[in-house]
Amino acid sequence: FKRYKSISPSIDKLHSELSAIVGKKNAVSSLAAREHHNHDESHHTGGSPAIVVWPNSVQEVSEVARACYLNSVPMIPFGTGTGLEGGVIPKTESVTVNLTNMDAISDLNIEDFDVRVQPGVTRKALNREIRNTGLWFPVDPGADASICGMVATGASGTNAVRYGTIKHNVLNLEVVLADGTILNTGGSKRRCRKSSAGYNLTELFIGSEGTLGFITSATVRLHGMPESTLSAVCSFPSVQDAVNTSIQVLQYSIPIARIEFLDNVAIKAVNNFSKLENKIAPTLFLEFHGSEAGAKEQVNQVAEIAAANGGTQFKWAETVEERSKLWQARHDTFYALLALKPGNKGYSTDVCVPISQLPAAIEHSLSIVEKYGILCGIAGHVGDGNYHCLLMLDSDNESEVLRAKMAAEEIGRKAIFLGGSCTGEHGIGIGKRELLKEEVGLETLNVMKGIKNVLDPRNLMNPFKGLPEI
Ligand SMILES: Cc1cc2c(cc1C)N(C[C@H](O)[C@H](O)[C@H](O)COP(=O)(O)OP(=O)(O)OC[C@H]1O[C@@H](n3cnc4c(N)ncnc43)[C@H](O)[C@@H]1O)c1[nH]c(=O)[nH]c(=O)c1N2
Ligand SMILES: CC(C)C(=O)C(=O)O
Ligand SMILES: [Mn+2]
C-alpha cells in the first residue's frame, strides 16, 4: 500500500478543478462542511476531509473521480453517515464525495417487483414513495440509511430472517471506479432475478465499504406487503431460554418475519427511552407476516415453542401505532443505551455465528464484558445468528476505551473460532481489519488485495479501511 504525500500544496488547484465540475457551491472546504464529514455514529475518530463535493449526476461523479485520480488524491464516498465502523472518517488528507444530491427513484417495475435508486435515496424515502403500490423494501438498519450506503456496508436489520439482507435484494449496481470509469456490475439495464453470466461483480461491491468505487445507483428487489401482520413481545427466565426459542423456531422452518433479542440491560434502557413497560427480562420481539390464517398459525406454533422454554404469554402490539412504536423502540436501542450514560460513545460489536452456536457465543460475550467491566446491553438479530454487544464508554477514559477494544476483539475472535464472522452487517471499517485477516486467512486476503489492486491500482478509494496492510 502506498503512502500518500500531503495534498495541501495542490489543494487550491484541485479545489478549482472540482468546482468547475460540480459548481462552486458544491465544492466546499469550510470548517462546517469538513466537520460535518469527519465522523459517523461510531466511537471512531480521525481527521476531516480537505474538500467536500456534492456531485449531481453519475457523469459528475466520474469527472470528480478522474480529477482526484490524476492528482493522486484519496476519495471517500459519503452516504448518510450512519455507519458504525468509521467508514467515512478520513485517515489521510482526502476529498469526501457526498452523494446525497443524487436522489432519484426511477424504473419502478411493479409487476417485476424492482426499482432503481440513486445514492441520495434512503430506505424510508423509498418506502414512502412506493407506499400505494402494495410493495415495500424490507431491509431496515435501525437508522434511515441510504440504500447505496447499505449496499456499501452489506447491511441488514430486523427483517433479514424472512426477506434476506441487502445482498439478497440487489439485482444490479452502477459503479464509478477510481479512474472515473462507469460500469454496471450486471451489465447495462439488467434486472433479472438470476444470472450465471460471468463473475458476480454485484456481490463484489456489496460490503466493499467504498474501497472499490462509488455506487451511483442500485437496482433493488421489492416485496409484496403482507396481508396480515402481528407483532408481540415475549419474556423469558434466561438468555438461554430466549435464544433456544429462536433456534427452535428456525429449526421448525416457521417463516417468522422478525425475531429480535434484547437482554435485561437493553430492555431497561428501551423502557426508559421509548416509554414502554416491558418486564425486565431477556426478551424476544416477534413479528409474523402472512395471510390472516397463516400468520395466526405461525403465532400458535411459536407460542408453543416459547412456552416450552419458559416464555411468558405474548404481549401484543394491537394497533399499527403500537406496532410502529415497538419497532421504533427496537431500532432506537443503541440511543436508548447511550441515554443510560449521557456523553458516552457507543461501541458496537457485530458478530454472526451459525445459529446452533448462539448460546455458546452469547454466554462467552457476557463473561468477556464482565471481565473488562464495561456497561453493555445486548441486542440481536438472533434469527440470523447475529447480535451486538453495545458497549457504552467514556471516550475520554483511556483505560475504558482500551478495555472495550480488547473486549470487542475477544468477542470477534470467539465468533470466528465458532465458525462465524466478526461482522454480520456493519462491516470491517477502521476497527476490524486485523480480525478480517484472521477470519478469511492470508490466501483469501491476498486475492482480495489483488482485486483491489486491479480496480483501484493507486489505492485512492477510502484508504485505511477494510483490508489490512500486510
Ligand atoms: C441507531 C443505528 C442503528 C443501526 C445502524 C446505525 C445506527 C446509527 N446501522 C449502521 C448503518 O445504518 C449502516 O451501516 C448503513 O448501511 C450505512 O449507510 P450510510 O448511507 O449511512 O453510509 P455511510 O455514509 O455511513 O458510509 C458507510 C460506508 O459505506 C461507504 N459508502 C456509503 N455510500 C456509498 C456509496 N454510494 N458508494 C460507495 N461507498 C459508499 C462509505 O465510504 C463508508 O465506508 C445498522 N446497520 C445494519 O446493517 N443493521 C442494523 O441493524 C443497523 N442498525
Ligand atoms: C448496533 C445497532 C445500532 C444495531 O445494529 C442494532 O440495533 O441492530
Ligand atoms: Mn443490527
Automatic annotation (TrEMBL):
The gene is LOC100186045. This is Probable D-lactate dehydrogenase, mitochondrial. It comes from Ciona intestinalis. It is an enzyme of class 1 (oxidoreductase). Its main location: mitochondrion. It comes from the Eukaryota. Keywords: FAD, Flavoprotein, Mitochondrion, Oxidoreductase, Transit peptide. It is found in: Mitochondrion. Residues 45-225 form the FAD-binding PCMH-type domain. The keyword Transmembrane helix does not apply. GO terms for biological process: lactate catabolic process. GO terms for cellular component: mitochondrion. Pfam families: FAD-oxidase_C, FAD_binding_4. Involved in D-lactate, but not L-lactate catabolic process. Its cofactor is FAD.
